[in-house]
């Protein structure tokens, strides 16, 4: 999470040379390709330069804020050289970031930075997700947290990207807190909230004893639901319980037992695939064996996503380039993967139709140009 962090290396091979001319040609195409981002955590997606700017600003203010800033700067410096993490390494990082994004002003700055960064990478539709927090030191409440994010979306200077909000429930939340978050999501769904997410440390919390009832109520109220599922091994019973709430999408879905996978595939539940995040956190051994390979082979609905690109230093265009290099995906296959992702968004059919028209217009220009060149 530093301007010096290494982005994933996209290897060249004979297929890339033939289809794209070079790795640079591949990256240029993937940057140009219109894309959707459906699994991006706000606080994990802050551009490193924006986080450093916020931390340095805080460090110049009060002593207490300065200590929070030092924590965030230490995170930036500590992981700048790292090429991989254990999944358990990710979650402690956020407490330092949360110490900076704890008032409306900082949340607005962060949201504008995140949205613009995705827009500059060719993302044309995004569903950002975040867990509402209270901070007594600034007077921030879960409701004002959501209000701040929605206000920042409405005032974003970005013009070529449509932004929606998914409100997250942490696995460690009590049933009461989970229900409160659902209340807020329902209250603000006409102002940009499109769904509920279940996230957090997969080693913590209990789905059935904690957020399950709240998520069932969210579904009954008409909210879309995405769940981080099967991030770690030996959670088969919990995974089956999660599927019983009829989620609309799944995050990661890395370690599915045969019966869980069969149900997910039979029901056609789209999976948010975060290749670099999984490889760097060592929940997947390599790109070559990533479970998106099976999904692509079986034509299962899959959406390439970044997860926490501020930490992993891999923009969405790199995720597409890695998929192309790893699985020999042509320009047309990459476009089709992006285009099919529209079916998985939580926005309404009007937005889906608008995006489909946008994608088609791009394809008409791009592929006619290739034919005429």
UniProtKB/TrEMBL annotation:
One of its GO terms (biological process) is adenosine catabolic process. One of its GO terms (molecular function) is metal ion binding. It catalyses: N(6)-methyl-AMP + H2O + H(+) = IMP + methylamine. SUPFAM superfamilies: Metallo-dependent hydrolases (SSF51556). InterPro entries: A_deaminase_dom (IPR001365), Ado/ade_deaminase (IPR006330), Metal_Hydrolase (IPR032466). Its cofactor is Zn(2+). Residues 34-358 form the Adenosine deaminase domain. Keywords: Hydrolase, Metal-binding, Nucleotide metabolism, Zinc. Belongs to the metallo-dependent hydrolases superfamily. Adenosine and AMP deaminases family. This is Adenosine deaminase domain-containing protein. It comes from Powellomyces hirtus.
